[in-house]
Task: structure prediction
Amino acid sequence: MNKCVERLYNGIIKENPTFVLMLGMCPTLATTTTAVNGVGMGLTTTAVLIFSNLIISSLRKIIPDRVRIPAYIVIVASLVTIVQLLLKAFIPFLDKSLGIFIPLIVVNCIILGRAEAYAAKNGPLESAFDGIGMGLGFTLGLTCIAVFRELLGAGTVFGLTVIPEAYKISIFGLAPGAFFVLAGLTALQNKFKMPSATNGSAPESVLACGGNCMHCTGSACMANHAQLETRRLQAEEEALAAKKASVAQKQAELSAKLDKKED
Amino acid sequence: MNKLLNVSSSPHARSNVLTQNLMFDVAIAMIPASVYGVYQFGLKALCIMLVTVAGAVLSEYVYESLMGRPITVMDGSALVTGMILALNMPPEIPLWIPFLGSVFAIIVVKQIYGGLGQNFMNPALAARCFLLISFANQMSSFKLDGVSGATPLSVLKNGGRVDVAAMFVGKIPGTIGEVSVIALLIGAVYLLVKKVISIRIPAAYLLSFAVFVFIFGQHDPAYVLAHLCGGGLIFGAFFMATDYVTSPITPKGQIVFGILLGVLTGLFRIFGGSAEGVSYAIIISNLMVPLIEKVTLPVAFGKEGKKA
Result:
């Protein structure tokens, strides 16, 4: 059970898909115009993510490796269709305001990413909890962005007026505002070093960047390459020395044996 | 120590051109337009200028002290940004909007990218576009002598006739700094005489714009002249497009940059939905500057004959 709690923590805080992994940027930027839309999109994705992780994890030994991506897409697409029909039936206003972004969950990279990176290698229970964690992390990210955008762009939070009409800055409701808010919140996340995979809690490495090339922006790259190169050379030298030593030892043993024989 | 005996690595000859001097020259050149703006629109215009300049200088100071960077308030670049922004504001705007604009210009457009010399867009113009998108109503309601009226450009856009002489002097509604062509030209001549700016960008800009409007607008010199005197074109060409940081440094590149500006402004004004297009044209061209510089790099001395 401990592992399940760890998956939740991992998804919500440590590898938050929005602020740390930077996955699913298209719905993040497009659907966060109002807080309600943000929460709706997040929870819809969560529902799909949980079941897709669960099903893919259960079928992971049956699906042949070569056709795994089409197989995942089929599973995810079926789930998205079900969710979309449910939304149309029970929450039609959300379906209307999210529009094309509901069918687009099929190609959301968080879902395929988690299927490929986690569900395909781990058991169904852990995978389901990974889906819950990632989904809630995504919902949290979208809600944060959406609350700020709605507050600044329309002066409301969840539809309640907070700032008078005259003081709203409507650019935050438009596309540039999404970039401003996302960048600002990610910068805050980095500034306060909330525990995440890319800072703080990551294991110390000799490399300045932490050695994780996935998040490398390139500026520190050359220096790190030099470091890696020297370490590789060092290791090779060590291996060579060890080999020489072992050869020398064998030779010594052999000669000792020969000496004995001659005696 | 005797300077003659001081041994150091090159460069040995230094010019007296400092960021500070250049910036204060630009500020001086904007004085005629500002004075005319205050004369025409009253103390309200002066308040807007004070607010934007104070906002720009203050946000630069606060950001740099918070981030532990060297304080560069005294180099005058924040002052110039604030002044340009103020001259781009309509006179009737509530004061908090220009303040927000100058904070955006300094912090988001300039400081976050690394301060003076690192911004890829003109901060004042980026802030103007930010405000234009955010507060479309307040940013485009112009009043003259208490009567709200359409700017000559929107009159032209709707097929009306305008008085070019009034546009030249500045008896028209518009933003604080752009109305008087004659005041702007006085400042521009000052900048050209002091060699703060070169004529290449403004000349290429105005010429290509005039040709574009003549071809695609109306084949009428009076119409072209009205377009040249209208809106922020003169102000943009001499004061904003020539910003050192966001314009090409190669001579050929400056001409390419000017032509690009002229064509874009013409496109926006003649075929676009809004009457004015100078700000967006300059901002988009700013983004092209690295590309233009890469293509127009001059050949180094001694390499003329060689073909690679």
About this structure: The longest strand of chain A covers residues 156-157.
